[in-house]
Design brief:
Length: 254
């Protein structure tokens, strides 16, 4: 069987990792996490990043040792070389999970798209799926270039939101760094762990990475650092806005 072409360096693999982590999740859970942690939201992001990084570095170690497109299937096969059932179940579980995730994301995208243009949701979903499939079959180098462009646009959008928020509210206020409810912080940490998931998909590109022994761990580390920085900036922006709003309403005449 022909081997996959090794075309991915640190930059391309890092962009792939950031793209798989930073998505709609941050917008859907940050409100709930802020309600749990209050002004300790930033600390919850750090705790969640530490917890996720432990798992991410485990993936980095395994995928650099066994760089293969099979990823988790191969890892389990290596752990249980004489028993086929664990790796068999792992492979099919990932296949079903990935299919369900793709379907959910496509439906969510079609829902957002319909707020601007009235087009049947299934038509949009199938259209996007076909477009991404066509990009993928052009090869890993071209598809990763397309990924870099899309992730850059996504990060630019977040930077604009962060810039506008901090411009209006100024630098993080002192109130933000006062530790309040540790139980709330831990509850928010569990909630925010979700926004760091996605790094595991980087392992499936192991067969297409140049010098996997060095590139994969480096890309995993950079991915976690970059996403954590972005999430912290978002948390500071959200907290600044909420502190300002609280101050405004507390000073308002009754």
């Amino acid at each position: 069987m022909a081997e996959l072409k090794k075309s991915l360096g640190t930059l391309r693999l890092t962009f792939y990792g950031v793209g798989t982590i930073v998505g709609a999740g941050i917008y859907t859970v940050i409100g709930a996490a802020a309600g749990q942690a209050g002004t300790d939201l930033w600390l919850s992001f750090i705790f969640a990043a530490i917890a996720a990084s432990v798992s991410a570095m485990s993936y980095a170690e395994l995928s650099s040792t066994y760089p293969n497109a099979g990823a988790e299937f191969i890892f389990v096969r290596k752990a249980f070389p004489k028993i086929d059932i664990p790796s068999f179940l792992t492979g099919w579980t990932i296949a079903f999970h990935s299919s369900a995730t793709i379907a959910a994301v496509l439906l969510a995208f079609s829902g957002y798209f319909n707020t601007f243009f009235e087009v049947p949701g299934l038509l949009i979903s199938y259209g996007v799926l076909l477009l991404l499939a066509l990009i993928s079959i052009t090869g890993i180098k071209k598809s990763s270039t397309a990924n870099i462009i899309m992730v850059s646009i996504q990060l630019l959008g977040l930077l604009i939101l962060i810039f506008i928020g901090l411009k209006e509210t100024g630098l993080p206020k002192a109130e933000i760094f006062q530790i309040n409810s540790f139980s709330g912080t831990l509850a928010a940490t569990a909630t925010l762990f979700f926004v760091y998931t996605g790094f595991e998909h980087m392992a499936s590109l192991g067969s297409e990475v140049k010098n996997p022994g060095k590139t994969i761990p480096r890309a995993f580390l950079l991915t976690m650092v970059i996403t954590t920085i972005f999430y912290l900036l978002i948390s500071f922006t959200v907290l600044n806005v909420s502190v300002r709003a609280t101050t405004y309403f507390s000073l308002a005449p009754r």
